[in-house]
Amino acid sequence: MVLQVQTSTYEAKTQEIAKQLLAATSENRSFFSSLRDQMRWDDKLLAWAMSNPGLRVQLFRFIDTLPALHSKSEIASHLQEYLGDETVELPAALKGMLNFANPDSMPGQVAATTVGTAVETLAHKYISGENIKQVIKTVERLRKEKMAFTIDLLGEAVITEAEAQSYLERYLELMQQLVEASKNWAAIPAIDEADGETIAKVQVSVKLTAFYSQFDPLDAKGSEERVSDRIRILLRRAKELGAAVHFDMEQYAYKDITLSILKKLLLEEEFRQRTDIGITIQAYLRDSEQDTKDVISWLKERGYPLTIRLVKGAYWDQETIKAAQKHWPQPVYNDKAATDANFETITQLLLENHQYVYSAIGSHNVRSHSRAIAIAESLNVPRRRFELQVLYGMGDKVAKALVDKGYRVRVYCPYGELLPGMAYLIRRLLENTANSSFLRQNLENRPIDELLAPPIAKEEKNSLTLNSHFLGAADTDYAEEEVRTKTAQAFQSVRQQLGKTYLPLINGEYVNPPEFVDSLNPSNFSEVVGKVGLISVEQAEQAMQAAKAAFPGWKKTPAKQRADILRKAGDLMELRRAELSAWIVLEVGKPVKEADGEVSEAIDFCQYYADEIERLDKGVNYDIPGETNHYIYQPRGIAVVISPWNFPLAIACGMTVAALVSGNCTLLKPAETSSVIAAKLTEILVDAGFPKGVFQYVPGKGSQVGAYLVNHPDTHVIAFTGSQEVGCRIYAEAAILKPGQKHMKRVIAEMGGKNAIIVDESADLDQAVVGVVQSAFGYSGQKCSAASRVIVLQPIYDAFVQRLVEATKSLNIGEAELPSTQVGPVIDANARDRICEYIEKGKAEAEVALELPAPKQGYFIGPVIFSEVSPNAVISQEEIFGPVLAVIRVKDFQEALGVANGTNYALTGGLYSRTPSHIQQAQTEFEVGNLYINRNITGAIVGRQPFGGFKLSGVGSKAGGPDYLLQFLEPRAVTENIQRQGFAPIEGAD
Question: Is 784 among the catalytic positions?
Answer without folding.
Answer: yes
